[in-house]
Structures are given as C-alpha cells and as structure tokens.
Write a structure and sequence with these properties.
The protein is of the alpha/beta class. The chain is built from 16 helices and 8 strands.
Length: 408
Amino acid sequence: MRLSFNNTQTAFAYKTNKELQAGRFLFGTMNYSWFAAIGVRLTPFLMKTGLPVHGAIRKTIFKQFVGGETLEQTAAVAKKLGEYGVQVILDYGVEAKQGENNFDKARDVFIRVIEYAATQQNIPYISVKITGIAGIDLLEILNSAPRLRSGIHDHELEDAKWQRVRERMYDICEKAAEKNIGVLIDAEESWIQDPIDRLSIEMMEIFNRDKCIVFNTIQLYRHDRMNFLKMYHNIAKQRGFMLGVKIVRGAYMEKERARAAQMHYPSPIQQDKSFTDGDFNSAVEYCIDNIEEIATVIATHNEYSNLHAAELLDAKGIPHNHKHIHFSQLYGMSDNITFNLAKAGYSVSKYLPFGPIRDVIPYLMRRAQENSSINGQTSRELLLIKSELKRRRTQKVKTAKQHKEVPA
C-alpha cells in the first residue's frame, strides 16, 4: 500500500472526539512558547506547594503523554494501542534518585517491569536509564578517566561502585533474556556517555548471541556518532554478537552547547539541523544495509525519515515486520506516523512512560519544552487534530443527510 502520514482517520481512530478536543486545547496552549516556558517553571513549584493542581495536570498533559500512574492503569492504554497493531516500549518514568540503596531499588523496578511486559502480547521492549542504577558523579569520573590496561581507571572506590553497576545491569539483562524482552538503554549527555557505551557493549556480548536483547541509543545530533555506529558494528562482528541500536536525533542539544562554551571545549553537537538530519538518514540506511547483523529501533517524529526508512525496506524487498527493524514514537505525539505505519504492516511502537504523577513531572516538562521548541511540531499536531475533527463533523453531517434521504 502507498504509505501516507496525512491520513488522520487512521491516525486518530483510537481517540474519541472528547479526547481529540482535549489534545487540541493542550497543543494550542503549547503553541505559545512563552506560555509553555512559564508552565515548565511553575508546574514543579506548584506540585511541591501542595496546592490542588494534580487533577488539572492529570486530565491534561499527564493523560496526553503518560500511560498511567501504575502498571495496571498503563495496561489499559497498551491494550487499546494493541487493538490497532501498535506495540509498546514500557518506561518507568520516575527520575533517578542517588544512593546505592536507591540504585538497587531501581534495578528491582526494572526487573518487575520486564516480568510484567512478558505477560503482555504487545510489549516487546522496556527502556532503561543507566542513571537510574549508577551515580552521575561516578559516570563523569569514568568518562574522563584514562584507559588503563588494568581496568577502566585507577580509583579503587570507583572500581567497586562500577562493579555494582555492572551487576545491576547484568541482573536486568539476564531477566530480559529469560523473558525475551528487549532492553533499550537510553542515551545521556556526552560527558557521561562513554561508560554507558562500554557497558552496553559488554552486555550485548553476553546476551546478544542468539537474538538481540540489549540495544544502545545513538544520538545523531552528535557529529561523531555516525563513525561510532560503524565502529560499534565492527566490534560486534569481531566479537560475534548481534548489534542492537536505537537511533535518535537527540535530547540535550542546548545543554551540550552551553557546557562546551562554558568549559571551553569543542561542542560535540552538529553545526546545524541539516547535518543531524543527514547523519540520521545515513544511519538508517547503514543499519538497513546491514539488517542481518544490526537490529534497529528507528525512533523519530520526523516524517521524512520514517517514510525514507519504510521505502528503503520496500526497495530492498525486506518485510515490513522484519524482526530487526522497529519504528517508534512517543505516546501522545505523532499518531499520524505511528498508526499509519501500523496499518501498513510495519513493526511500530509507542514509547509509553508510567509512574506516580509527582514523580513523572520532569518527564512531562521535557515533553512541554520539546513541543514548544521543535520547529513546527506543535503546529503540526494541532493541524492534524483539527483536520480530523473537521473530517468527523463533515462525515456526521453526510451520514445524517443520507439517512434523511432514505425512505421509511
């Protein structure tokens, strides 16, 4: 079938008129960047004051972007998505808390999420943040430490802490392999990413022998990541394991540039968006060209990149649901991409976070910032919702007219 991302009937078939109207209101407010900026700063403060704002947040931004406060609530959303051929990447959206005990608790939560995902038909992956099981200060030390032959670095205390991180990650991946659930390791800022990359390779070498369980995330807004992908692939071939990657454009651009300027080192970020787009699409092509050796999650809201990947699969005669290619978008955004891909038979999922409303506020604020900062994103969401509401009104009038013309 001819793939189009303009079919709003397919995109919003799972939404009621009331839900679409709520989405129109939310994206309408986000369309005013000044309003979104105020909301991002004010909402966390209001949550801490104890003022009765939970209800308003739950009915608006929380409902739009989060599956629920518990796994049980999220199950209803996952089931609804599954009815339309859409799978789920489950993410415990609570921000990391520091301390060894908290890291152990986070590991236990990830394992429970894996066990739950294994009971559901359409949850093939979970998302894991290494900062949930490792201290950021430790990751910074490891990122800048010299590569000694005796180990990562020469600090005994950090060695012991890092060993505990490795053990937590091993426990998570071991359970995932047992339950046949993929683990998508989130990318972080460049100054803590290197140990995460090395840990992901270590886990892949152990668990990606017969199938792909562990995936690392590559952010193509970094100008070194295309070469990194190729190096990663070579390492996988040399060591005899399947490479798993989730490719994204990236999430920390402004923070990266500001830190580089402040600390007087070259920015790791691409010159401009065109370079990011070029490398992202090149990464898609590279992974599809090596589809038997690389399992890829193409995670993007960019319509061209999704269409380009879909057309590449067709051009090469690769099945839409090939086990090594998966598309993904965030829950609450780009339904026009997700549901039209699903209807065309492609393997596609929604990245679905869950957690107590107070704890997922940081995630929600990032979604608000993302929608207000990405050029055209909010306007596109608004346009699609308005188009579908108009189509439904027109269809309703047409149907009523047809019924009136039919003789009794």
